[in-house]
Design brief:
6-stranded parallel sheet; Rossmann fold; alpha/beta; 568 residues; 3-stranded antiparallel sheet; 22 helices
């Protein structure tokens, strides 16, 4: 994509890599660069600095937490966790079904909708941001409260409920899934053309033997969570890139330490706060005995000073001493890559060049996809299954193992239509009323067929729309922890669509329309066209032969449910 005169959104634009990318982007004269950072002062300061240098380009600041709803975007993690109302909002936002309300409330969606960027460059260290919420510390806190409740005859205190809620809001996978859902929907709605993620390996390119850790474990569970989440994130982006109608998806994944932003002498900050200096003289030493107390009055003295030294600023990864930097960048350790090199690759990928560093493209090229041999043998497998069905007089329609319930519903409805008609084209000779009546007659008279359908969890809605045949288990609706659920016309229509065999006239009208659409498509093809242009052409449908239920289901998934695979 051309960069000139385009709108570009940089997520994490104040950071080390984000800043380097912006410096490269301005050379291509974009119209607007929106810089989003966690804090207002960061976003505003960098925009003001850049506007003074590049007056021909518009720089717009945005700030806040992209993983939460707009009303919570400026709150710290502690503020979110220590307020019950906020915790419950976080649980709803990550654990409930994804709907319009979810996306409209999202801060990230509001930013994308407000600016409608042509290009989004995401330099936020997502895996670190989510994994370092530290589920494991939460586990120990919850474990302590669980023990208290057991000691008090299963009395659940307010602290117990709070720790349960905190644990639920810290689960990593629901958070990354919801983030990807919001990001994808928002980019599709606002017609974003290219999305590039700067990802991470989680260990700076090192293995399970990485010596850099924040606990006694080597490697720590938190660090491995970061790597696991980084991998999950990449696979979700891989799926996003294989979804029709969305932007081009790329990910650059540095596998080394990234440095540097500045080399200075000054106050050393950790987690945004200066490190305070304390002293403990030998006469105030703590005597070691059989217990170690984490919170001890101690014999230390606050010196009312802060730590000052020479440091190298590596942006989001923090500041290192000369000794730390020399260690981590040594040959055989993480070593390092500069942000400008990352930025060069990002620019080349946007412009359409192939750098060889796009992880999504690498996955597309290295995965093992469909094969000629499998396609050749598929016909043999189908023939064998059809022969066995004839031999045992047993129809093989659906077992509700593949899923979703909608597939089983479609296959059984198509099977009923096949039982009514002589051929594909014969269906169009029936009215919706006649199909409704005849399919119901078959089901009411055929105990074996009826039993198979309801026994796999697919209810049967009779054609009056008021009676339902079902077994002990149903796939739709999903209980979601409820004993019962409200039933109304809207719910019935949703459930029938998602996983009920629906014998109502209105559903038979849908089926007739489907057959007409397929036939109309076939008629547009010239009989003398023997080229490879159509893979679902006249020879495929065989309209004068009995209905093929699998072909119909695949057609519905591709054309109605937009479930087309776009990459081989």
């Amino acid at each position: 994509m051309d960069i000139e005169k385009k709108k570009i959104l940089i997520l994490g634009g104040w950071g080390l890599v984000g800043s380097a990318i912006i410096r490269k982007l301005v050379q291509f004269n974009p119209d607007t660069i929106v810089i989003l950072s966690l804090k207002e002062i960061e976003a505003v300061d960098v925009c003001n600095e850049l506007m003074s240098e590049y007056s021909q380009i518009k720089f717009l600041p945005e700030w806040g937490n992209i993983f939460v709803r707009n009303s919570l975007k400026d709150l710290s993690r502690n503020e979110l966790l220590n307020n019950r109302k906020y915790r419950q909002a976080l649980m709803v936002d990550t654990m409930e079904a994804f709907d319009d309300q979810s996306i409209q409330a999202s801060f990230l969606n509001q930013v994308i909708s407000r600016h409608k960027p042509n290009i989004i460059i995401d330099t936020v260290n997502t895996a670190t941001a989510l994994a370092y919420q530290d589920l494991y510390s939460g586990y120990y806190n919850l474990k302590r409260e669980m023990k208290k409740s057991l000691d008090n005859n299963n009395s659940y205190t307010e602290e117990f409920h709070a720790e349960v809620e905190k644990t639920m809001t810290t689960l990593y996978i629901p958070q990354i899934i919801r983030h990807i859902q919001i990001l994808h929907k928002s980019m599709v709605d606002n017609k974003t053309g290219v999305y590039i993620k700067i990802g991470t390996t989680g260990t700076g390119g090192m293995g399970l033997n990485i010596p850099y850790t924040h606990s006694e474990e080597q490697p720590s569970r938190i660090l491995l969570s970061k790597s696991a989440l980084a991998g999950a994130h990449t696979m979700l982006l891989f799926l996003m890139g294989r979804t029709p109608g969305g932007p081009i998806i790329k990910e650059i994944k540095p596998a080394a330490a990234i440095a540097w932003k500045a080399i200075q002498f000054g106050e050393i900050n950790k987690h945004g706060k200066p490190i305070q200096l304390y002293d403990c003289t030998p006469e105030n030493a703590i005597q070691l005995n059989n217990k170690f107390y984490f919170s001890d009055s101690g014999g230390w003295k606050d010196l009312n000073e802060t730590l000052k030294s020479v440091y190298i600023d590596t942006g989001e990864n923090g500041i290192f001493s000369q000794g730390e930097f020399e260690t981590i960048t040594s040959i055989g350790q993480m070593e390092f890559v500069t942000p400008e090199e990352i930025a060069d690759n990002v620019i080349l990928e946007i412009l359409g060049d192939s750098t060889g560093h796009d992880i999504i493209n690498a996955l597309n090229n290295s995965i093992m996809g469909p094969t000629y041999r499998a396609g050749y043998l598929r016909h043999k497998a189908m023939e064998s299954m059809i022969k066995l069905q004839e031999q045992h007089n047993a129809d093989s329609v659906a077992f509700e193992i593949l899923g979703p319930p909608r597939l089983s519903k479609i296959l059984y409805e198509a099977h009923l239509l096949k039982s009514v008609s002589k051929s594909f084209m014969d269906i169009t000779n029936f009215s919706a009323t006649a199909l409704s009546e005849k399919t119901q007659e078959i089901l009411l008279a055929n105990k074996e067929l009826r039993s198979k359908i309801i026994s796999i969890g697919i209810p049967i809605l009779l054609n009056d729309g008021k009676r339902l045949l079902r077994g002990p288990a149903i796939k739709i609706p999903v209980p979601l922890g409820k004993v019962s659920i409200e039933m109304n016309d809207e719910n019935i229509n949703e459930w029938a669509y998602a996983g009920w065999v629906d014998l109502r006239i209105q559903n038979m009208e849908v089926w007739i329309q489907r057959f007409n659409e397929i036939y109309s498509f076939i008629k547009t093809q010239e009989e003398e066209d023997t080229s490879s242009r159509f893979h679902h052409g006249q020879l495929y449908w065989k309209i004068n032969e009995p209905i093929n239920i699998g072909k119909l289901a695949a057609w519905i998934f591709i054309n109605e449910d937009k479930g087309l695979r776009i990459k081989g």
